[in-house]
Amino acid sequence: MLEFEKLAPEIEQMAQGAYQRAQQHDALLEAALARLHAHATDWGGLAQSLQMALSQVDGKLFRSARPVDDNEPLDVVVDAPPPPPQATLMASDGSQILPDRHAAYLYSLINIGVITYYHGQGRSPAGLTYPTLDYPDGGGPAGEAPLEPFVDNGAIVYLRRDLAEIETLANTAWDNRRETAPRLAVLDQRLLYWPTGGTSNPEGQRVLDGWQRAMVKARDSGALLAGYIVKPGKRSVLTMLETLRVLAEPGYDAKKLELFSSRPGPTDAHLFQRLLRQPGQRSKVFVDVSQQNNNFRDRDAGNEVCFFYFNPGRGSSQLARVDIPLSVAQDPAAVAAVHALLFDQCQIMGGYPYILTRADELAVVSYQDQEGLNLMIDTAMQRYDLRGDITAKQSGKNDARAGQTKHGL
Predict the structure, then answer these.
(1) 121-125, 182-186, 375-379 — which is least confidently predicted?
(2) pLDDT tens track for 260-294
(3) Cα Rg for the chain, rounded, in angstroms?
(4) At 113, phi and psi to the nearest 5?
(5) Which of 3, 113, 248, 350 would you call most buried, defined as having the most Cβ atoms within 10 angstroms of its Cβ?
(6) CA 94 from centre of chain
(7) What does pTM read for this prediction?
(8) DSSP state of 291
(9) Residue 197: CB atoms within 10 Å
């Protein structure tokens, strides 16, 4: 039972601190916006400051941005073009049941939902789900070792779910490669994926390799790949602008850039909210400058991840970030198609792409679904005279939480 009155002083202090930070952040953002306007076409100065910064900072700690080209100024505001008359859109999302050692049977589940939407074609959307059950000594063809050994580590299950999302999307894009173009394939997360723990363990490296192969497969299908991020937290453009300020100081300390890049503070989205005031508007396209993106670029130049900020409109007060691979970012017609189709989708749902909502609906595993699956497993086990029992710990929690009962001696 939570005693709220004991938290009141801390909550008041929390609110006061948030107010003070908001004042500081407003001043920082105004200065950054002025710098964005002042250096809107200063391509040489930007390149020089970024080169100097990269030569003096720790690449593992420094995350910045650079303009993808010099065709549009840094402070450009691009209205959404009209969508093409016809197009094919695909989106995937995932859900999971994590392994629970207190449950009757040990297993995990990954469920991927994918939707194909036929824009302007008079066809109903097509939805499919791909559930995968994993359990000890299982998950592979009969008599063969499983492709992915069972783990009871929830973090690894999340990694495998993320990989399954993009692999399913890439496979769907390939299956639809003869459908009406343009074809847009959208993930509900970033494209510059980096597994928890990086590549220091075999599972992380396997997931990263699979992720990058899926990006290539989506491109080979002819689809325009995009990642849609709600409430993005990047500070890459702000860091790029900060390099102009810090490196202009007499006796500058480049280490300040490492701290700026990694510490909490206002984000790029806060900056571009001051520019992208009308629904549908997007920012310039930038390239992510980071050690992780170097890995993507070194494996396949077309996979280098770029991004732009986007006002989805219709009641949404926050900007979204749209990630696209360099192979899309370098094609103005492709960028325009991604921009137009995403805004058109956001008009259906009121500030969020319809296809992502539908993919989530297909993927989500409800509590009732989990109870039904447990019943199916229990019934199958009983046919083989096997019985599983939840632990006493879990039984006590279930009883207490169901009735909110306080137990005493």
Answers:
(1) 375-379
(2) 777 788 999 999 999 999 999 999 999 999 999 99
(3) 24
(4) -110, 135
(5) 113
(6) 12
(7) 0.90
(8) H
(9) 12
> Which of these, 22, 41, 374, 46, lies nearest to 241 by C-alpha position?
46
Q: Which of 201-205, 211-215, 305-309 has the lowest mean pLDDT?
A: 201-205
Say how far apart CA 377 and CA 134 lie, in whole Å: 12
Cα–Cα distance for residue pair 397/409, rounded to 1 Å: 17
Place of tokens 């390099």: 243
CA atoms of 342 and 321, how far apart (whole Å): 11
* Pick from 177, 178, 181, 89: nearest CA to 126: 89
Distance CA 114, CA 306 (A): 24
Burial label, 222 (beta-carbon count in 10 A; 0-12, 13-18, 19+): middle
Residue 134, amino acid = D
Topology annotation, domain 87-232+267-363 = archaeoglobus fulgidus dsm 4304 fold (3.30.2170)
Which residues, other chains included, contact 15 with Cβ-Cβ below 8 Å and sequence gap of 6+? Answer: none
Q: Which residues pair with 226 in a beta bridge?
A: 186
Total number of residues shown for the chain: 409
**Pair type for strands 286-289 and 305-310:** antiparallel
**What was the pLDDT predicted at 392?**
41
